[in-house]
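Task: complex structure prediction.
Instruction: return structure tokens for all chains below.
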Amino acid sequence: MSSYAYLFKYIIIGDTGVGKSCLLLQFTDNRFLPSHDLTIGVEFGARMVNVDNKDIKLQIWDTAGQESFRSITRSYYRGAVGALLVYDITRRDTFDHLATWLADARKHSNANTTIMLIGNKCDLEAKRSVSREEGEEFASKNGLYFIETSAKTATNVEEAFVQTAKDIYEKIQMGVFDLSGESGGVKLGPSQPGISSMPNMSQANGYSCC
Amino acid sequence: MDFFKRYGAIGGSQPQSPTETIQRMADRADTSTLLEDKRAAVLGLKGLSREYKKDVGEVALDTLLKVLKEDSEDHNLLKAILETLNNLCARDSPGDASSEAGATLADPVADKFSQAILHDSDDVISIFLGLLGDADFYVRYYTVQLLSALHMCAGEELQQRVLVSPTGVGRLVDLLSDQRDIIRNEGIQLLIAMTRSNADIQKIVAFENAFDYLLGIVDEEGGVRGNIIVQDCLQLLHNLLNYNVSNQNFFRETSGIQRLPSLLVTDPSQTAAGRSGHPMPDADEDLEWTSQHALNMLVVLDIIRMLIQPGNTNTQSNQTAMQQCGIIPPLLQLALAYEAPPTVRSQALYAIGDVIRAHQANQSLFQRILITTAVEDDSNTSSQRAIPEPAIVIVIRLAVGKHPTTVSANEYYIVRAAATHLVQAYVGGNADAQLALAATLTPPGDIGTITEPEQHQSAGSLIVSVLLDWREASKEDVWRVWYAALLLSTILRDHSECKEQALKITLGDASKGEEPFPLINEIMSQARQATQHGADVRVSIAMLTLISVWLVNFPKGVSVFLDESANISFIVEQISGSTGINALVQGVAAFMLGLVYQFDIDPESPMSRESLYPIISKRVGADQLLIRVQRLRDSKEFQYAVGLAAGTYSSAYGGAPAEVYFDGVFTDLFKLHYESFRAAVRLGPNEVMANPSYAYLHGGMAGYAGSAASGSTPGTPRLGATTISRAASPSGGAAGGIHDSAPVNRTPAEPTVAKSEFDALHAKFVEQESQIAELKHTLETSAAQAQPTLDLAKPVNDDSAHLEQERQLRVQAEAERDEQADEIARLRTQLGDAQKQLIASQENCQSTSDAGDVARIAELEQQLSALKLEGSQHEANWQSQRDELQKKLANAEKQVVKAAAAGRNTNKKKEQQQATELVTLENDVKAKDEQIAKLTAQVNELSEKAKQLELVDELKERLAGLEKEQEDLLVYLADQEQQAKDNRAKLRGYGEAIPPSDDEGEDDDDEDDEDDNE
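Output:
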């Protein structure tokens, strides 16, 4: 895990209790905690994924879903290149709020940010109150990727993060991002010979990472 | 006053009061339609805003904010407004130089205006934040200044306002990359203030890449050798990480830790400024440590230590990361930098200690570090041949060696404390290191060698020589002796082997006809001399506490101690004396006497507890003893050491030298033994052993270092939950974590069955039963193994909708497996029956030696062999089914590969995943093959054994009909059992020992079986 080709910054947003922190924990630690504390403000997690044989480091900021933290979490939109917008398939209100979340995200984030719509808790089929089709429809209407996941059983969790990374990677290949920009949420890894977004990292290049 | 005339003239009236002028100008700024007029009015207000701050603010603040919102395009106007607002909100700094530099007075006026601005209904703060992005230098500069002024007056409110703006913090962080140093530096100051306590802002600042910016600036400005800007950047970095776990994780994940070692480099040619050829401001005095340099370095060291605070969740991974990126060598270099300030050297040593503390890998790496260094003593500049030495020796030399002549003993104290902390971190939980150090304890060649160069002594002999030559060593620096004693305590502490090792050391050259004298008694003798000659009381205390640490839990040491009669008489003298005796020494002596009495349980003790008892009870008196110790406990000197040890010993720089008498090793010991001490001294010589606190003495005295490692005692094979290939060890059984298909009900400890006259018969039974057990176990294990194989197939299926076919196959395979399980269950039942039969017969046999019974037993035996053979057949059958299953699985694999290749060309990742899973599966199947081969071998073996039994042929004939007979057999068995019960009852009546249940019989056999295998 020493070097990586790219570094992407993600944020996870959505109503409180939809399982944002659990998704992150499942993705980074392969763990599931049935009772997770409310996230205060924002928490950080990271993991490496592989897309097109390139190591990509994902830095993920898991935001608090509660309304009172909304203004703080907005500060993270601008710097993120991927946003996971999560709702709970067993709670229709969390689906109904998606429009607000999306408007917020569109308003504050970079135009090129890839947004992945996630219907979480798909293991609770019996309690489902938002159909898969509805989720798909919302996503296609708004030009989002869509996937149903379960942070509990780990179903599609990996896919949700990796698919987002793939889309961002393709955008990079198409030259959508200005990699020299500092706040875009995309950075070249320190291992890239010649180019470096971190001009003063030259000394650190020789060291192997943790 | 020129001013008023001028503006007064505009109105054409008489000279006005300032208030009137301000009012007029405010009106004009508010209502003028011409930009020039507005500008002129605002400039006028600006001119008055310093001198008439209160008036301008009260009258014109609202107007100024209104104009700002309306006409923010005009840069000149904007600048004037910002400057005016700055004047209104800035707290007055005391003008005269006599007051503290940089301090600002509380300023209610400025605070009031700041509040007014912050609570502006139109959120003017967001306008300011927007202005931070303005291209104009002054607009940006004044805006930063204004925000700083607002933060000074109402920090928390400003932070809340900034957080509300989605881009607010981002704009502040953008200041860090401003090319204009003045703005950048103002930005750093503002961020330092805003991140001091607000975790939300800390996180967003970090999110906005502040780590990169800051480390970049530090490098640009010449690294730690740079100016105050470097210190500010480091301070900001410190703020971002302090108490913020999320940011610490982020720092590690962004390779921040990897960049720390370069911050420790003091050679200017290795920093960016040095590389680009900029002459350093202090180029002439290259290696001089300026105070700025030291301040910068201290912040870096503080950051390092903050990331590896003991007990934190991330400490272990951060320690690993730090070690891997090579942080120890530059830290050691700093620690050994003769010219560096003691504070820096001390913190560097603490940092090394923190990097290796409770981290086995780092500890053992540290053990291997060798250093070549010049002699530190500056009187010894002559070129010496430098020989590499272990780092630990050099660190110990820092702790007990001479202090540099340029630094006073008390200033150098913190280096000794830090070096000792490092040694303690090195041996803590590291019994091997402790023992390795103890092994270097050798008597110094000649007492008095301390005056010789300290170079190239072993760690242990260095400590011993300083300790024994305390007169010389403590002449100018008593801390050398004090820390030598503490280091020896650290080496001996709770480690009986080390204590033993040290006990073997004797002084005196036998070849010169000198009587060898144990080191422990030599130290006591030195303590006596130090006390009698009125040396610094710390010398006596250090030596006596060291001996206490040595003797506790160490009866053999107590024996040697008691062998020298002067020791006890010295201690008693100290306790009973009333004048001219230091109360602290007295207390330690009393505590020691208690320890000696407690642990005087060595059979070869020259002075038994019986002979010690009268000394305690009569000569000294138990009450007296307790009072002396209580007085020690309550002394402020002792309490200070307790507090120091309880708090973060390290961050306190080892405490204030004037206050330090006792060390943490002794206070820990005292706390642990105080209660038992109190109880012990009141007990008679033969009572003590009843005290439960001595139980551990009999259980072994490995000490804390040993017990810490007991979780992973080397050589103890561990049955991991995933160990599959343990079919050969029946004791593992179904209790393993694989699949608990049929947990066997066993009692762990069975009563021993008295061997009686039935030994021969019994042995036979045992043999057969063990065979059955083996067979049964084999079946169980195999059944358990069948499960994971199938489970493995599951993930392959899960993620692919295309693999329906494969799924069906799996269902089929599962069904087959179920069938097999049924078969196995059936076999098991049969075996169980056979076992019951056996036991029943055994009991029969034991109860009576009737010949008819023997015959019946023989018959039973035959039936049993038949059953066993049948078992082998089933086994073989089952095996072939397994083979088939494997083939099917292999087929399924192929199909998976095909399906994956066809359907998922684009999804390479998944394919890879599946491929790896398939590889695992294949490996698994291979493993299964091996296991099956093993099983076959076992089955063959079994059948061999069966053949050896008598009447095998006959049994084979009966084999076909056996299954039908099974039911009859059960009825018959019930009979037998009843009979057996009767017999048992009868036998019990005769007082024979009879195993009470079937299960126990089985257990017994398992046990035997295991023995056989071993």
